């Protein structure tokens, strides 16, 4: 996944240029650059992370999938309990 170098600290930029890590630096020839990792999150106690808008959309979609699934199971359980009485 390409990473926008302007959002990275210098030490990480140097490590990526040396070939370390799973990401590559975004250049002017990168296709679909709007999908690149552009956000850098550094919370003390957690690992430093880079992520993209697409990652956020996927996370929201997974949340709604689990939410809807759990909500449907609750409705089914209520209907089953109601029919037994």
Structural account:
With about 80 residues, the chain is an alpha+beta fold. The protein folds into 2 domains: about 1-50, no CATH class; about 50-85. It has helices at about 10-15, 55-85; strands at about 1-5, 25, 40, 50. The protein has a two-stranded parallel sheet. Strands 3-4 form a two-stranded antiparallel sheet. It is elongated and about 60 Å long. The model has no long low-confidence stretch (mean pLDDT about 80).
Topology readout:
Elements: E1 2-3, H1 10-17, E2 24-25, E3 39-41, E4 49-51, H2 53-84
Q: Enumerate the strands of the largest sheet in spatial order, edge to edge or round the barrel.
A: 1-2
Order of helices and strands: EHEEEH
Shape: elongated
Structural class: alpha+beta
Q: Mean pLDDT score, rounded?
A: 79
Number of beta-strand segments = 4
Number of domains: 2
- C-alpha Rg (nearest Å): 21 Å
Give a quick account of the main beta sheet: strands, pairing sense, barrel closure.
Answer: 2 strands, parallel
The fraction of residues assigned to DSSP E strands is 5-15%
Keywords: Membrane, Transmembrane, Transmembrane helix
Transmembrane segments: 49-67
Structural key phrases:
alpha+beta, 2 domains, two-stranded parallel ribbon
Characterize this entry briefly.
By secondary structure, this protein is α+β, with helices and mostly antiparallel strands. It has helices at residues 10-17, 53-84, and strands at residues 2-3, 24-25, 39-41, 49-51.
């Amino acid at each position: 996944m390409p990473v926008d170098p302007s959002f990275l600290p210098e030490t990480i930029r140097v490590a990526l240029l040396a070939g370390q890590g799973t990401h590559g630096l975004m250049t002017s020839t990168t296709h679909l650059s709007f999908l690149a990792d552009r956000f850098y999150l550094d919370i003390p106690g957690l690992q430093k992370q880079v992520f993209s808008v697409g990652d956020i959309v996927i996370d929201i979609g997974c949340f709604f999938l689990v939410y809807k699934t759990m909500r449907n199971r609750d409705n089914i359980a209520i209907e089953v309990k109601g029919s037994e009485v």
